[in-house]
Specification:
With 226 residues, the protein is of the alpha/beta class. 42% of the residues lie in helices and 22% in strands. It has eight helices and twelve strands. Keywords: DNA-binding, Phosphoprotein, Transcription, Transcription regulation, Two-component regulatory system.
């Protein structure tokens, strides 16, 4: 169970979300504006943030950007059904998951549990993954490139570790959603956005990736550099 910050200016929605998350065992703090949410997160370091994209003042995308400047705290976005571009933008800024409005509070609680469970899971007994200058330690949940630690979100780390553990094997986006996100179904663009973010952090030339390759008509494959 964790301490969850809910940033939403609709207090009716916030109250419903709070009650469902508290019922699931979480401690919940509410913030009605982006500024309030950023300030509280900076001072108290929540375990997860539920973030509405449509906020007065600074919007959810800017809140997500500011959160990512400070930490890798998991972020679950709340988006309207037709806001695909904003949803992709949020994922590009480092959000870990999203739920579209109108949403089931029970579904949101399950998504929060899923993200927290992966972020706080007992480290697996696994060897350190090394590929040239890229080093991923699943037990310590640390990744570095040429000795410099990489700032990866929970989902980015899980995706990279999974792909590196299965070099040369092509995975569909649906399979990656299942293996990394724990989803039986979902928006495949979530995988696409996270792959793009990973390439920007681990590839020498992200536009011409050599590690995470696109397998046309299938999905993605990790190719070792050495």
């Amino acid at each position: 169970m964790g301490r969850v910050l809910v940033v939403d200016d609709d207090m009716t929605v916030s109250d419903v979300v709070r009650r469902y998350l508290e019922r699931a065992g979480h401690e919940v703090v509410l913030a009605a504006t982006g500024e309030e949410g950023v300030a509280w997160a900076a001072e108290h370091r929540p375990d997860l943030v539920v973030l509405d994209l449509m906020l007065p003042g600074i919007d959810g995308l800017e809140v997500c950007r500011r959160l990512r400047e400070r930490s890798a705290v998991p972020v679950v976005m709340l988006t309207a059904l037709g806001e695909e571009e904003d949803r992709i933008a949020g994922l590009s800024l480092g959000a870990d998951d999203y739920v579209t409005k109108p949403f089931s509070p029970r579904e949101l609680a399950l998504r929060v549990d899923s993200v927290l469970r992966r972020a706080n899971a007992a480290p697996p007994v696994a060897a350190v993954l090394v590929d040239g200058g890229l080093r991923v330690d699943p037990a310590a949940r640390q990744a570095s490139m040429d000795g410099v630690e990489l700032a990866l979100t929970t989902r980015e780390f899980d995706l990279l570790a999974f792909l590196m553990a299965h070099p040369g094997e092509a995975f569909t986006r649906e399979r990656l959603l299942h293996e990394v996100w724990g989803w039986e179904f979902g928006d495949r663009s979530t995988v696409t956005v996270h792959v793009r973010r990973l390439r920007e952090k681990i590839e020498r030339a992200p536009a011409k990736p050599t590690r995470i390759s696109t397998v046309w008509g299938v999905g993605y494959r990790y190719d070792r550099s050495t």
